[in-house]
Specification:
With about 450 residues, this protein is of the alpha+beta class. Helices cover about 55% and strands about 20% of the residues. The mean pLDDT is about 80.
Length: about 450
């Protein structure tokens, strides 16, 4: 309003000056008077132009700052009641509001970016040219990379994965196996195509479903084992019981029968002995497998890992001495504690250590290493490493399958049972092996 009053006042004064100038000219006034009024009119025109120009310049500067998202400028306010003061107050109020909106927009962006980065599912976006816009931490971890600038770089990691990412359309998904430092993992790849401001880009999610697949596989094995053990036990128990009863009856008759019948009765007794022993052996064999389907619920307690390692070496010292095995124990930090079932974890470690001892029977150098530490993701890791003969590559992917064994004398349930125990602790077990160098079994627990 003040701006309008000031402008109107200048226009009125200019009009009055022009009116008096024309009046002086029509009345034939002196040249000096006319010249003076001409100077006054010109001066008023110049001041009016500068007044309008200064205001327009401030508006242009203000709009240019908005265009460039520059809200840091503050227009001086003298509180003298002039129209310039009012204009500066309005400018500052608008800039403050825009700055507040910009800060809120930036905060929302950072919030969603933080959520994006911390999702457990791997996510990445890239444009039509293949330039990667965003890739979160989970995706980097699954692909075992530090940075990804172009989607084509995935081809050097896994060609099938690269092909799937490029060919999948909205709603499409595919299962891809890739090599990872933690072992072979199964990725579920899902893609969505999006358009934003006329630009096309693709959002791809990567989810490691290896644990879920292993869980379903183990459930299937457990279901099969339950059926098999039930049927075998139902069949063998009466056979074993009946053979034992008949053997007792024959033994009683041997004391009273004639010599001519003794040979025949002894043959019957020998046959029944064989039936009984084989039945009992089969029942014990089935009982071992039954353990796979009946893993007890862990009773969680605090376990000091350095003390656990000491107990294990004391328990198995005789075997270490017998095979002249050097044992190295490392726990970092030394007071590292695991929250788990002591009996079940000890059972797993004993099984892995005994396997390591057997693997080193023919080795020249026999070193067993027990390591416990916290990795970069805050997970507690226990590693059992040996300098044994290693595991064949074909067998490496099968050693956790029930009934599979590479030993001449083995039931094939030890590692499968160990894996189930670790799974009950919401953890995982992995293995790395090099022929002629040795193997490392890695137990992973959430910290």
């Amino acid at each position: 309003m003040d701006y309008k009053v000031g402008l109107l006042g200048r226009i009125v004064l200019l009009a009055l000056s022009i009116f008096f100038l024309s009046l002086f000219i029509t009345k034939g006034s002196s040249v000096f008077g006319i010249s003076l009024f001409i100077i006054v009119v010109v001066a008023q025109i110049i001041f009016l132009i500068k007044y309008a120009e200064s205001s327009f310049q401030k508006v242009r500067l203000f709009l240019n700052n908005i265009k460039q998202d520059n809200y840091t400028n503050v227009y001086p306010v003298k509180f003298d009641g002039t129209e310039t003061d009012d204009l500066h107050i309005e400018f500052n109020a608008i800039l403050a509001k825009l700055k507040e909106d910009q800060a809120e927009k930036e905060a929302n962006y950072q919030y969603f970016r933080s959520v994006f980065q911390h999702l457990s599912i791997g996510l990445m976006t890239f444009d039509e040219s293949g330039n990667v816009q965003i890739i979160n931490t989970a995706a980097k971890r699954l692909l075992n990379i530090q940075q990804l600038n172009h989607i084509g770089e995935i081809g050097s990691i896994n060609k099938e994965l690269s092909q799937a990412i490029n060919q999948l359309r909205t709603g499409g998904s595919e299962l891809i196996k890739i090599a990872h430092p933690d072992g072979i993992i199964q990725l579920s790849v899902y893609a969505i195509e999006l358009v934003m401001r006329g630009h096309k880009f693709k959002l791809v999610s990567l989810q490691n479903i290896q644990s879920e697949l292993e869980e379903k596989e183990m459930e299937a094995w457990q279901g099969l084992i339950k059926v098999l053990t039930h049927e075998i036990m139902n069949s063998m128990s009466p056979i074993s019981s009946l053979a034992s009863t008949i053997k007792s009856d024959i033994a009683a008759k041997l004391d009273v029968e004639q010599t001519a019948d003794l040979l025949e009765l002894e043959e019957y007794q020998m046959a029944l002995n064989t039936i009984e022993k084989r039945s009992e052996g089969l029942i014990n064999f089935v009982s071992d497998f039954r353990n796979l389907a009946h893993i007890p619920v862990p009773k969680f307690q605090t376990i000091q890992l350095s003390s656990l390692f000491d107990q294990l070496t004391t328990l198995l010292q005789h075997s270490f001495d017998e095979y002249q095995i050097q044992v190295i124990k490392r726990v970092e930090p030394s007071e590292l504690i695991l929250f788990a079932d002591p009996m079940l974890i000890e059972q797993v470690l004993i099984n892995l250590i005994q396997n390591a001892i057997q693997a080193m029977e023919e080795s020249v150098t026999r070193v067993l290493t027990l390591d416990a530490f916290i990795d970069e993701n805050g997970k507690i890791i226990i590693e059992i490493s040996d300098s044994g003969k290693g595991i064949e590559e074909d067998a490496l992917s099968k050693i956790f399958i029930p009934f599979f064994t590479t030993k001449k004398k083995g039931s094939g349930i030890g590692l499968s049972l160990s894996k189930q125990i670790i799974r009950r602790h919401k953890g995982n077990i992995q293995v790395k092996s090099d022929l002629g160098t040795g193997s490392t079994f890695k137990l992973i627990f959430n910290g």
